[in-house]
Amino acid sequence: MAEFSRTDVVARAETVVIKVGTNVLADSTGTLDRARIQSLTEQLVRSRSGGRRVVLVSSGAIGAGVGRMGLGKRPTDLPHLQACAAVGQCALMQAYQESLSPHGIHAAQILLTASDFDNRVRYLNARHTILTLFEYNCLPIINENDTVSVAEIKFGDNDHLAAMVANLLQAPLLILLTNVDGLHTGDPRQDANAKLVETVPHIDKSVTELAAATTSELGTGGMRSKLRAARIATAAGSAVIMANGSTDGILDAVFGGQTVGTLFLPHGEALSARRRWLAFTARPRGALRLDEGAHRAVESSGRSLLPVGVVEITGTFGKGEVVSICNREGVEFARGLTNYSSADAERIRGLATEQILRVVGKVPYVELVHRDNLAVIG
After folding, report:
1. What is the tens place of the pLDDT at every residue in 290-317?
2. Is the pLDDT of residue 354 over 70?
3. Residue that wins the pLDDT comparison between 362 and 104
4. CA–CA distance, 180 with 297 (Å, rounded to integer)
5. In the structure, what pLDDT confidence band is assigned to residue 3 with cuts at 50, 70 and 90?
6. What span, in angstroms and rounded, lies between the C-alpha atoms of 202 and 341?
């Protein structure tokens, strides 16, 4: 993919996920910037020309609630955060619908939680809903369901959600709109010599070390958050563009192939929707640590994971749940659906098939994790 220009990246992206952050949509008090929303909406409408399918992942509910209720700053305790989200989500969707109505486009609200991505059935239901909304000429607008999602408000952000939505739809392009111009060699707000990194072929340690630990009064994310999201998306075969959503005409520039922001090139194999879910979306319930031989067989030879190669099991999980698969040092390199519960897996780990038969009396599955239910993530 590295040989493709930005124009090629955009031209190949028939489905695009765009994430816009709180600090793009609101001022320092959380009051929604109606002119900014109007401008972004008009650009979103233009980006849909030619049949391109666009999904918007929009932050701003809590910030909008802070502004609407005149609080002046973001609360710190969970009940007040959730109350702000409940009030602000209405204001946020109202602003989008008012901007979309003149174009004959309906805003379609979708509120998700992390558990919606863990559960395969609910995950597919969300996918089918979004695909159907495209048929009705709607703009799906997705946000974390902050009123019920404790973990997301306390620890998470919508950058990660946007990456999961990109995987959900197998979108070739994810655009992260933030309040900086992209990834820099330093924090541009503190270092006048910081330079914009225009293209990142691969997100490695040298790239993650560039991230500044910056946050804001209204938002929950920072550069590290965006790099984590970009890493998820690029590892699954999607390109990512990080750009400044406060810049006039930024989406027009991106879809025009202009060199704005930072382009992160995909470096992973384009995965099927199911393997994207398995590798990058569903949260593991436990971990299996392997010996060197099993590690090589799974990672390099595409083999199933047999009990004989497992040296340690951690966590509590049931049959059919997602588990991390780690090397002897405990570094995750794959994920899979286990054929055994953690209790049963502990009984048979390290045993060859004939030994399992003698110890347990039966072998319902030869494989602990079958290769068809396994995704290497590197």
Report:
1. 999 999 999 999 999 999 999 999 999 9
2. yes
3. 104
4. 44
5. low
6. 36
CATH class of 6-275: alpha beta
Q: Which residue has the tokens 């541009």?
A: 188
User: What secondary structure letter does DSSP report for 333?
Assistant: E
Name the pTM for this structure: 0.85
Degrees (nearest 5) of the Cα angle 61, 282, 108? 35
Cα 228 to Cα 163: distance, rounded to the nearest angstrom: 9
Q: What distance in Å separates the CA atoms of residue 255 and residue 20, rounded to the nearest whole number? A: 16
User: Could you tell me the fold of the domain covering 284-376?
Assistant: 2.30.130
Q: What local confidence, expressed as pLDDT, does residue 63 receive?
A: 82
Q: How many CA atoms lie within 13 A of 65 on its CB side?
A: 20
Give me the residue spans of the domains in the chain: 6-275, 284-376
Amino acid at 294: A
Query: Are the beta carbons of 73 and 79 closer than 8 angstroms?
Result: no
Q: Is the pLDDT assigned to residue 201 strictly greater than 80?
A: yes
Both tokens of 92, joined, read 């946020």
How does DSSP assign 119-174, residue by residue?
SHHHHHHHHHHHHHHHHTTEEEEEEE-TTT-HHHHHH--HHHHHHHHHHHHT-SEE
Angle ∠(243,244,250) on CA atoms, nearest 5: 80
Measure CA 234 to chain center. Answer: 10
Amino acid at 137: N
CA 287, 278, 226, 149 torsion-angle sign: negative
